[in-house]
Backbone:
């Protein structure tokens, strides 16, 4: 039993992504993988393919026809909307696609969404991973109109919608840690980073996103290329900031004034163009605490997503327990 | 860097001496990694250590690295030597003529100069498998072109300033294309997909053919 889906239309920036590859950044290969890691993890969890892959889509969305077999799908991220044969378009949706049906994905307020199918497909690997490195096209690859995918062992998924991930929260304050090349900036630039508003621009791809607003001009850009990390805020010679994303260059000769904490990198990547953001400069200890708190919250959210109703049940049962204790206390003769 | 990496800086000047320390620390970390280390990225004068923030913290990772540096017994692997065959001619090196003009040399002298260099792999960067080789003789030092150009195949041997590089992808470049090699720097099918390690020594050898 297989299911066949065909992309009748695929927008630009449509790629196959898995969790990404580690261990080869020393050879110029970034981690790649999803730009919004939590939305991707949700699509994986719902389709029951935790080590699998999803289609990453941007504003162009897509139109997919099911040619054969019934197969479940899950869509999560960026508020993108899914409709099947023109039914009510909904974000954060799982359902089943049947032969002859068409699934349309349209852009939401964010920039990136993840569409996973509940089946097995051996998308091509490169250096151990299916994540597509967009500028080379290596990995699972870019998806263009007309491409077909056959999934083995397809499973249906019950119709359902769910709450957006915590990474979609509307907070526009993002946490950064200074460095690693803050020494290349005058004190006014450092102060400006914390005080001035910046705007998430429409100029982005999988490598990075340009921020409009204040120019944080480095005192010198003559530095040897240094390793770069996803989340680095890199200033060009004019002082314009770019935040580095999943397919960033592994080294760069432009100074990085600060680095966003992991959870906030993905949030910034999803902000609609024109959105004003501000940076809170925090210390490394605080960054670590936030990272751990975010990881715990994300794990809890993903668990809740795959075991719906359980949180309500837990609350209900703890209320009952509280009630019992109160009753006991009330009736205790001591 | 954020909550998941530290950068150890050894200086601001590109030199073999500083890069040797980067490579030595990189090798020490590979044999004695701190708890939670994910990977390391060596560069000209600095080394990035990525770690899992759920397992460890930057100050612990940095302390581990500094202790390795202070330890008297950082043993370094002897650099490997690679001989890379290159075809230098108008078809394989479309910029040979322009480089000759800009440096006041003949095309053959440009090739002789390029062959005379002993090159060191300082780091990888820019794109998968792009190894920065330092050691271009001063007579060939040229600034990059004003604009990057497309259409150069993987395996192009390109130079700018003191640096030389062998491309692995048909990416646009503003460096000068002086030859072509069949040596494959990045082959995912090999057990070791990348031909060079930082610290390795490269010598070019002239071969004929188109």
Residues:
């Amino acid at each position: 039993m297989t299911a066949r889906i065909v992309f009748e239309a695929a927008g630009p920036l449509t790629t196959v992504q898995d969790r990404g590859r580690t261990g080869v950044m020393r050879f110029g290969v970034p981690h790649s993988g999803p730009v919004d890691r939590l939305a991707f993890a949700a699509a994986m969890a719902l389709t029951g393919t935790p080590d699998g892959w999803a289609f990453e889509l941007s504003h162009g969305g897509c139109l997919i026809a099911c040619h054969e077999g019934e197969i479940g799908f899950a869509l999560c991220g960026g508020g993108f909307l899914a409709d099947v044969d023109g039914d009510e378009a909904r974000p954060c949706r799982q359902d089943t696609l049947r032969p002859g049906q068409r699934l349309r994905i349209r852009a939401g307020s964010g920039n990136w969404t993840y569409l996973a199918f509940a089946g097995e497909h051996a998308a091509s690997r490169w250096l151990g991973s299916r994540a597509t490195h967009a500028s080379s096209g290596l990995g699972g690859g870019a998806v263009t109109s007309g491409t077909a995918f056959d999934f083995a062992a397809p499973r249906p998924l019950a119709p359902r919608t769910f709450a957006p991930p915590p990474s979609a929260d509307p907070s526009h304050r993002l946490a950064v840690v200074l460095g690693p090349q803050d020494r290349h900036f005058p004190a006014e630039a450092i102060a400006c980073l914390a005080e001035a508003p910046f705007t998430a621009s429409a100029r982005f791809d999988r490598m990075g996103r340009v921020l409009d607003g204040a120019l944080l001009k480095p005192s010198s850009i003559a530095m040897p290329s240094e390793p770069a990390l996803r989340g680095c805020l890199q200033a060009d010679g004019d002082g314009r900031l770019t935040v580095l994303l999943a397919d960033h260059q592994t080294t760069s000769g432009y100074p990085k004034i600060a680095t966003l904490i992991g959870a906030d990198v993905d949030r910034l990547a999803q902000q609609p163009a024109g959105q004003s953001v501000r940076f809170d400069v925090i210390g490394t200890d605080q960054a670590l605490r936030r990272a751990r708190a975010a990881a715990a919250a994300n794990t809890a959210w993903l668990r809740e997503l795959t075991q719906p109703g359980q949180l309500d049940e837990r609350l209900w049962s703890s209320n009952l327990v509280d009630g019992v204790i109160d009753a006991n206390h009330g009736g205790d003769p001591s | 860097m954020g909550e998941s990496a530290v950068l150890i800086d050894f200086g601001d000047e590109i030199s073999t001496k500083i890069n040797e320390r980067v490579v030595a620390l990189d090798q020490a970390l590979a044999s004695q990694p701190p708890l939670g280390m994910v990977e390391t990225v060596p560069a000209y004068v600095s080394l990035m250590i990525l770690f899992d923030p759920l397992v460890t913290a930057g100050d612990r990772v940095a302390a581990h690295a500094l202790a390795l540096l202070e330890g008297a017994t950082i043993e370094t692997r002897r650099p490997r030597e690679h001989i890379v065959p290159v075809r230098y001619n108008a078809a394989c090196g479309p910029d040979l003529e322009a480089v000759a003009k800009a440096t006041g040399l003949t095309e053959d002298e440009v090739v002789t100069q390029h062959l005379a260099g002993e090159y060191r792999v300082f780091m990888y960067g820019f794109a998968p498998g792009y190894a920065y080789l330092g050691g271009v003789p001063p007579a060939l030092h040229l600034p990059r072109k004003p604009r990057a150009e497309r259409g150069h195949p993987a395996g192009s041997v390109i130079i700018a300033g003191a640096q030389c590089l062998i491309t692995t992808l048909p990416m646009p470049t503003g460096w000068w294309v002086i030859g072509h090699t069949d040596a494959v720097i990045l082959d995912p099918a090999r057990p070791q997909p990348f031909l060079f390690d930082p610290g390795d020594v490269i010598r070019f050898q002239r071969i004929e053919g188109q």
